[in-house]
Amino acid sequence: MSQTVLVKRLLLLLFSCFLYISSLAQSSIEKLFNRGYHYISVDREQAINYLTQCIEKDSTFTKAFFHRGICFFKNGDYNNALEDFKTAYRLNPENNVIWMYQGFTYRNMGQMEKALSSFSNYISLHPQDTSAYSYILRGKMKYELGDFTGAVEDYDMALRLKPFEEKYEYYRFVALYNSEKYPQALKAANRLTRINPDFYGYYFYKGNVFSKMNQPDSAIFMYNIAIIKNYNNSDSYFYRAQAYQQKREYTKALEDYATAIMLNNDDGSYYSMRGNCRYEMNDKAGACADWEEAGGLGYYEDFDKVKKVCE
């Protein structure tokens, strides 16, 4: 056998050994990852341990960083979670879902601007996602930042992707209500009552909208429906009382304030508003007693009246 042939065979043998050893190493890494992945829902600390071993053996194993980041996130270790998500994305920029997890992490850290940016990045990089959830998440971040109009835009997009989703309609209503777009909020509340006509809360919300639009009769009508559907909700009586008070129907207002207090006697605002109603009726003693009670419960919005009127 010639020396050249012998050298070639030795090189081939060495290469085969290298491939075999590499395959064993890769198999060992995969086993560590699979163990870590298995423990994510059982024992996150153990999962982190196995995934860390996997990363120590292969610092380019993207899935190990990503899933270890999820473990850190679920453990509330947000800084380490972010580090792992960023590393996973650097290793595999095609995994756009990482932006969603970064958004969740920033949201839990109270960094709403960064959460908003992360959700926006996911939407721009993954436009084929028709689940609507990403728009809801971004809408919530905009809402938290006080951008009610932007929130409504995202909720509208979510509803175009998933029409008649009750909770999405509710988010949209709240954003419209808080942005003081009451006619639009009323339309949103109407849709909610069509989707779920049995839930008292949507009629209560419609009553609130009518109150904001200075339509006390319509507000009272809606509060009536809310009370018929759930007569134990103290807020329905409380807000109906305010509508009656707006109409100067003080006897009915006092009856509703009394019912609200009977159902929930720990809310200082109930006593305070009843005090205002009594004061309008020239019942100074009753008003002062209610304002004092409200202050005792920690509600001080009308407490200055105690010094001005009662002393």
UniProtKB/TrEMBL annotation:
Source organism, top-level taxon: Bacteria
One Pfam family here: TPR_2
Segments annotated as TPR repeats: 62-95, 96-129, 132-165, 234-267
UniProt cross-references to InterPro entries, sorted A to Z: TPR-like_helical_dom_sf, TPR_2, TPR_rpt, Ycf3
Keywords of the record: Repeat, TPR repeat
PANTHER family from the UniProt entry: TETRATRICOPEPTIDE REPEAT PROTEIN 6, UDP-N-ACETYLGLUCOSAMINE--PEPTIDE N-ACETYLGLUCOSAMINYLTRANSFERASE SPINDLY-RELATED
Official protein name in the record: TPR repeat protein
